[in-house]
Design brief:
The complex is a heterotrimer of chains A (278), B (257) and C (315). Chain A has 278 residues and is mainly alpha-helical. Chain A has 13 helices and four strands. Chain C contains eight helices and 18 strands. The longest helix of chain C is centred in the middle third of the chain and has 18 residues. The chains are: A mainly alpha (278), B mainly alpha (257), C alpha+beta (315).
Amino acid sequence: MIRGMAGAWLALLVAAPLLVVLAIAFAIPDPGLPPFRLPLQAGRWVEGNESWAVLTQDGFYLAALLRSLALAGATAGLCLLLSYPMALGILSAAPERRVLLLALVVLPLCIGFVLRMAAWVGLLRDSGLINQALQALGVITEPWPMLYTPGGLLAGMVHSYLPFALLPLYAALAARDLRLEEAAADLGAGAFTVFRTITLPGSAAAGAAAFLLVFIPAAGEFVIPAILGAPDALLAGGAIWQEFFGARDWPLAAAASVALLAALLPPLVLWQRLERRR
Amino acid sequence: MTRWVLALGLGFLWAPVLLMAAFAFSENRQPFVWGGFSWRWFVALAGNERMLEAAALSLLVAAGAASLATLAGGALGWVLGRHGRFAGRGLFGALAAAPLVLPEVVTGLALLLLFVALEQLTGWPRGRGVLTLLLAHASLGAAYVAVVVQGRLAGMGRTLEEAAADLGAGPGVVFRTVTLPLMAPSLAAGWGLAFLLSFDDVVLASFTSGPGATTLPLLLFSQLRMGPTPEAHALAVVMLAVAGLGVAAWYAWSRRR
Amino acid sequence: MSLRVEGLHKRFGAITALDGLDLEVHPGEFLALLGGSGSGKSTLLRLVAGFETPDAGRIRIGDRDMAGLPPPRRPCAMMFQSYALFPHMSVAENIGYGLRRAGLPERARVEELLALIGLAGYGARRPAQLSGGQQQRVALARALATRPPLLLLDEPLAALDAGLRAQTGAELRRLQRETGTSFVMVTHDQAEALGLADRIALLAGGRLEQIGPPREVYAQPATRFVAEFLGAANLLETADGVFALRPERLRLGATGRLAARVGQVAFRGDDWSVACVTAAGQLLRATLPGDAVPPEPDAAVMLDWDDGAMVRLRA
């Protein structure tokens, strides 16, 4: 009975919404409310859906998707590069101090996502703290634009996603067999050689999983680019948002969602494989 | 070397947050411009009824969504962890985990379209508001609860439940006296996770909430698009203090055990 | 109470755990199930307890067929290998769990059991606050609380250190005698089985190899597996068949039945192990008392044994 109830929950709140998206992706825009008509009417397929043609032929959407994937790749790469040595750093501390260091990693999350972005706006904008400081020091005379640039956006992205790479990496590195490293050192390997030949290969799968764990949600990220990103360089999440709320083209928004999911399917499958192998 | 990177990374994580907190005590109306020490933004925050209302609504929605998510996610995790093989288990597991990996924009859009379609077909739910928001947050939270519960059940094995059955306990009694008490910590952790997810959410709320139901993140987000306000700084200090106290209390409690 | 198992089959996927097992345990008997990993001994216990369903065959406890009965309704109790004490309950609550389920008065019986296992006054503690040996006794008390007529023990001593094992084994034996409960104990430790049980059943590949009193299975192994699994054995292949010859039954001297040359000689504390190579090139091991003077390596000796020492094995 519990299985039936749990199954009903999944059917209603997970499967049904996705099926509705898929159905509306093939619907025909209509000025009514809701602003679409289903393509299957009285058992006949009605032509008129242009979403897929628009998505594939208008370079705007493809560019947005590619920009999203590039941003997600850069974010995940930087997160991995930072969090791997950070995790090792936490593990090199005394065991009773590790919990404290982990708390220090998680605590900045607690002021909430929007306020963290507000802090970045306050730092990055032309009248912001960094420009104030640089001007006071005489490094620059005119404000250096940072808000709405790719660099500023990347800083905000990494700031938000870093803990999501760090925590699973920390767990994986904490569980590694230290005797292997001792054995390598005993066989004459120096500290760096031990790292290169034992630690790094042993945690490659965990590193790849952490990368994907950031990449997948970052590719669909919408709020951070909306605040820190350039308004004219729209990303996939923003495009969906804009079509839905701005242009009220629900079929196009649904089709763009399906396309985004399709683009994320390969990394998702890869991530599942990595998780299953561990 | 790793310690230097750790220090650098923690500095990167903390600098914006601490600077924001520091300027909450600045007299100046311009955020991030020092104008002498003042409590005025905390006073302003305490008197900001829109903000307080939004915070109250957020707490309410988060608590409700987390409770619903714990019920549903607990059931999902229990089915995945204890029902072994059954027809459709692969699909069941994929659907249970799907909200974890779907982009929030897609989840939000999908849930909104579902609610619209449901209203067309059945007349329920009438418009978007607290109820639809609660369901959206619960569906996301349930996926997290399910993962935590399933992990806990897999980790503890079946031996204890077998021992209880061997000592004469029927399935219901085994669940009540052994499985549920041992699941309780993971249910509590899942509840907390679902609460935080809901309390911090902008995207799902943008899609599934209605005009009468503006949560705190939604309000802050719309204000931020106009430009940051000093009251937001004061709010950041309050949140930091609450979370810091929470972590300290938890740390003291876990050391005592 | 008696336990009777007939033609029991159980497969897990491609692995055959039990392959037509027949076995009988008498009322009040202490039976040891001995075998290597994969021999099916633990599977048998789980089938009797009702955690698994047999593919074929019957299980009877007393005069009742167990088919279709779920674990809580079977008259046997199980003591788990890692004890499976409920970590969120006190020692007293653990011991009283079965009594509570059966609606029996709890307090006096729990106190009685705590005294019986030497843990009076420990009732309020949590299992995690006990040593391994104490946890083992609590698990035993919990299983015995409702006075089940048949107790199944899965490697009850495996988690204890060597020192505690002998003492706890003797304790088990005493409790079994005092309560008159039938014990079926799974073990892979031959010394444990030989020292504690009334009878030993040897399992290999999901089948019964031999069953009998410890002295009988040791002295008269029926198969090559039993001869090699229980103690050490020299195997002699002759025209009449295969024979087992225990090393301690071999004598070295100037006269005897078989000429051999001494190979390696090793001192093992209690005894000497002497490897001898016969003229035909076969290796035979002999053991000599620890206080004997061993032969020099490479010396020529004659091997001798009593007539009954050679045991013919089933093919």
